[in-house]
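Run log, item B.
One chain of 393 residues. Sequence copied directly from the ordering sheet:
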Amino acid sequence: MLRRGGGDLPREVGVLAVVAFVVALGFGIVAPAIPLFARSFGVGTTAVGLAVSAFAFFRFVSAFAGGSLVERVGERLVLAAGLVLVAVTTGLAGLATSFPVFLVLRAAGGIGSAMFTVAALALLLRVAPPTHRGRAAATYQGGFILGGIAGPAFGGLLTTLSPRLPFFLYAGFLLVAGAVAMVLLRAPARPAGGAAPAPAPAGEPLSLRAALRTRAYVAALVANLGIGWVLFGVRNSLVPLYVTEELGRTAAWAGVGLLAGSAAQAIGLLRSGRLADTWGRRPSLVLGAAVGTAAMAVLVLPPATGAFLLSMATYGLAASLLASVPAALVGDVSPARGGRVVAVFQMSADLGAVVGPLVAGWLTDVASYQVAFAVSTAVVAAGLAAALAIPRR
């Protein structure tokens, strides 16, 4: 372990942040190629959407099994195996010659992604001391954010050269990340004449039923549902259409709004973790949920470009708290190797990412964009209500 005084974090946190960056960078590279490659098989728009959602769906349904596996064999092996599984299926998907084969490989990749995500977060929360758990979660999320910003720019360029090329590059990135995880996440040896490394938290994993009886864990689930609903779902699916159809702007303005949100989140993560550790989990979560609710409520107002940009940037700041504080709460509730507790936490965000775009899209069709954003605001506000219900201690 690295020295924990003065704000230092365990060595594993830095390794996991680097792995997260590589994974997000590769995913961002392959994301623009997926719909184009699927369309090259001569399928319709619905099938293209199925190719995109199959990964997320199988990631969601397999997460709980991944959590059980973590409790049996440990985070490191599950993490590396998940990365290898995604790498192999992604590489083979780039070689696919028919749409059914491509779809099956994408679905299998979702299983590997669930294994990696659950194992990485479970390890992060287990090794981080309670006084640094918020900072550890923020550092880990920062790796994902930076990789997610850089990846799509390269992906668009590579896709113009060949829609298969991003799949092979992403597979290579994942193999590198898996090798890094296997080598650098080994338990550090006891230094000669020095103190032994700090032991991992002892005790049996907290049962899921016991975790669900705590208000802190329920608040973490509701807040994570909102993050998945807005950040990974509605923002990516509805916002581009809102900008072009409601604001009458070009798609470039949608990119500006999304970039403003990501940049604000990256900047906010520099402080959000420390705030969660020093000010406290409850007030930090209340602040993040309140700001996030206000940011989404702005989109319910009559359309205006300035209000849209303000909403995106403000929600990005809120997301820096909503992406780190709930994870720290899960670690507080289950400091031992709680694979299933972490898995359900991750599933809550995945559920929001799957259901959010569907509900918001339907509401837009039958009512308006403002109604869809109002429902999304209510989902974020539910996280605020749950945060206020956490005991003050």
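Observations after the first pass:
- The domain at 208-388 is CATH 1.20.1250.20 (Growth Hormone; Chain: A;).
- The radius of gyration is 20 Å.
Flagged for discussion on Thursday.
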